[in-house]
User: Fold these one by one.
Assistant:
Number 1:
Amino acid sequence: MPGNTSGNKGNSPSGWYPFGLNHVWLPYAQMKTASPPLAVIGTEGCRIRLADGRELIDGIASWWTACHGYNHPYIRAAVEAQLAQMPHVMFGGMVHEPALTLARRLAGLMAPADHDRVFFSDSGSVAVEVALKMAMQYWNNRGSRCRTRVLAFRNA
């Protein structure tokens, strides 16, 4: 586990939990009626360690763990190596080898063959926003009046 940066000694959530919880909106919860969330202090494989000493098996396979689990040695080493070289560089007028290599590999997997570009997005909502903008730009580039109506499901 990385070092504790909360100012508390050990894994006690006595400071970070009650004081931090007052400053976060939790997803998928009605904050006034939801049970307090569990205080997690560590992960390994498919297990989650709680501050009270209990250990859970992640049967939900949350957002990112479904494909790789927690703290897989190969993934951890690759992330550490990438962080040491270059943690993040945005594509605002710049590119880098890992992203271009990944883009080329992904483009090779796509069908039909004339789709040879990828767009990297950090979330589904950003991906949808960019896809809509790309569609509008497509019509603009064709010399057509830019289409601005978007079909959506009500209450979706």
Number 2:
Amino acid sequence: MSRRGWVLFLVMGVVWGIPYLLIKVVVEDVPPATMVFLRTALATLLLLPVALARGVLRPVLPHWRPVLVFAVIEMCIPWLMLGYAEQHLSSSLAGLLVAAVPLVGAVLVKATGHEHIGLRRVAGLLVGFAGVAVLVGFDVETSSPWPVVAMAVVACGYAVGPLVLDRHLSHLPNLGVVTSSLAITCVAFLPAGLAQWPAEAPGADTWLSLAGLAVICTAVAFLLVIELVAEVGPARTTVITYVNPVVAVALGWAVLDERVTAATGVGFLLILVGSIVGTRREEPTTVAAAVDGAGAQTGRTTAPDGVSSTT
């Protein structure tokens, strides 16, 4: 990986580990629907001029149906559910549970028949889900199961979104797809966002967190990830999924004084190991190995599979 690639990777690992802290601060004063509306409204205002200047919106318009599906699955539902969940769960726990996205993605790939999953990968998935069970069993301090269910919905959305993007929108400009999806989400949450506007004006910390969430963790983050994918490829980019939770836990502990227990470390370690093993491509068969050998002679390489996420 080039020096530029490493810089982009490290910056993105931090940038997409921050939203959990900011969301936790915002939902103390602002309902989740209003938060999603404000986040996407500001991000759209920032990205729209760039998208128009680059002429990347026009090619997206004829494909509005898959863009709509992508917006709903990747942004509308997950961001609303994440806001709801963080009204009850710590920001660090939310970040750790989102680390299960690659596991969910691997299961979906298998369920749709897109790829074979052997015993080694099944073992990895079981280890990863055991890590989720450890986190849920020991670190969740809520009397209701619904925040955990909401996080499961978030993980599913983040896992399905890239599949929709890959199969139906990969031939379109990324910036055009992202800007259009943000605009769709903004319009969708406009009525609820305004209807649930808080009666009391939020404090300065809330507004600053909202600004950071929209500007840094949404608009700037999407621009950076587009550059990162172009620099290092989509497979290496997905490794950010393993860095985000570390940043989320560190910030939750340092800024919000959230509790970090032994179960936190064990659960994350199991999820990390399970995700790496469970999402790695199987060893090729004899015939496939011969084909890959021929490809290697022509300079072709094969990268491990993975599933990316946004927050």
Number 3:
Amino acid sequence: MIDLVVFVVSLAALIWGADLLIAQSETIARFFGLSDFFIGATLIALGTSLPEMAASISASMAGHPAIALGNIIGSNILNITLVLGTVFLIAKNIKPHRDFFSQDSSWALFPVFIFILMIMDGVISRLDGLLLIVLMGAYLLFLIRNGEEMLTPDETQEEDTRTSFSWIRTGGMLLAGFVTVIIGADYLIESASALARMFGVSEWIIGVVMIALGTSMPELVVSIVAARKGKADMAIGNIIGSNMANISVAMGGAALARPLTLDPMAYLFDISTMLIATLMLVFLSANKLYTRAAGISLLIVLAVFLQHTAAAA
């Protein structure tokens, strides 16, 4: 029972720390006049992916590759099916300014295809991890060179932001959030591993469902709030950027800490589901199907995924 309490408390600390980091990152971005999409696809995406990064790197260092990889794959599935599906159901009149299909669909698919190629030999090596992190750098460079990162705020808003902004306060809160995320991730992995042994459930199931669901909560909250405020570019950008960060930075960092070994055939359904969900994201953006029907279709994929996982447990 104590392991379950530790699991819940550490997960809550992980999410709270990430939320603190997200809020302060957005404050810094507004201070420099960055656009909604750039904020969503970079700062907020990296911030909401911090729980996945911390959990996967901690799991890798502790010698639990199944938890590390399961968390990343499960999070990517949930980000598209649960988070984006819920956004499409709740938000009204989603009309992004950005053409996600022509500008960002390749960045949604590239990491997934590269991961599949890398895992075919059963291991994500340190070199693979380094290449994945370089991929994130390429994505950030693309966004900057794409010329849509800057917003032109009116002088009054810019002056108000600069007047209320404090590097000391913001820096202190960023540090507090970062420390909370690191400590929370460490205890989360220890308790999750203990729970897996207690209930006779595989570490993969713990990672792909329990931890992935918890670490996807920041994306869910941020995207819903952004969409309800009419910031569809930020909401969708957050999902694309988060999934990119999960595979490139979280998986890359975990592999650098310790090479990740996994039999891909044993988890073919989960890997295939991640690919299918990503292809659905590309299809919906290509046809601009940001509707409730699209949301329902994504949630159906989620239901099939959870049903299969429950049966496998």
Number 4:
Amino acid sequence: MFVDIAKITLAAGDGGDGCVAFHREKYVASGGPSGGDGGHGGSVFLQASDQLSTLSDFRYKRKYTAQKGGDGESARRSGKKGEDLILRVPRGCLIKDAETGRVIADISGDEPVLLAKGGRGGWGNIHFATPTRQAPRFAKPGTSGERWEVQMELKLLADVGLLGFPNVGKSSFLSVVSQAKPIVADYHFTTITPVLGVVTLGAGSSFVMADIPGLIEGASEGIGLGHAFLRHVERCRMLLHILDAAGSEGRDPIEDFETINRELASYLPELSERPQIVAANKIDLATPEQLTRLREYFSAKGYEYFEMCAPITEGTQDVVQAVSRKLAQLPPIKRFEAQALPADYYEPKEGDNFSVEAEDGIFHIEAPWLLRILRRTDIDDYESLQYFQRVLNSSGILAALEEKGVQEGDTVCIYDFMFEYLK
């Protein structure tokens, strides 16, 4: 089954908790704290695979979670890091935030892409020992891993998109110019899934062509099959428009051409401006008058125009050579750039709470929403730290610290981030 849209939840592993323990050894008095740190949670990565061509694997399993980090142990032993989860998806898969539609990643390259970062392990009590507090009896829990609900959209990576009404000969053409083996039959919607074929012109010279099925009038509004597959045209560097020169099904090939271009413009205006080459197929069934009319029309419109009979390969190589020449002048296949998180993502929302507790002279701040801001804060960058301080002030956290009696020089701990309080 061909599935090109799926909605799933990706959850990175939580960090392990820090350990409270004390060193005990014969003849060693007051050995001190020895609780180790929790391990970091595993992260979730997506990696492109050329062995996959559909998102059907994600249709029934909707949640994917990386491994939690191990808890810290005594004798200063840190917990084991959670194992990363690497999901393989078809090349060309676009990942969007399911709620906002923001593009998170385009899985088109070879390197794994980080989607959800694992939580950090909590500190063990060895980190909280001071000259005046030699036996800290507390440790920090691990932080939560990132969690995203995402929409996956498969947009095929192809240099050339084959356009045309059903039964004009797109599949026949693809089958004779490439090694692809699409189903060819004399009825509508024979092709019900996009088919990719590699067209080879010689050593080191090839391009990928995609047969886009089901484009008819109203496709952009959900009529026929085209509404499900128009997205696969988006990445194509150019389009090859195949027509039934003979109008063997009672349709006018020129009207077909104009209709499909209107559908492209309705779905995405920039598609109607994509370079196009026109190939009139079934010339063995067309009259001289029909062919003359097509030549004159497309010549006046400025399109490169060719005539062919795909089943017997007449004229097909001329079309392929013209496509190759055009591709040499065009930019690479379109890649979608990841979009930055909205500015208000980092701001506290209504209902976001926090707590401030003092324990053994350390002021602990607990605020899950603050963690997402802390993850994105560069502590070595002055402006980034200034922004973080403004958030602490505007959210009321600094005021709460003062109510708890914090003094200049006291230690403030936000998860595994510790700093000295300065007025």
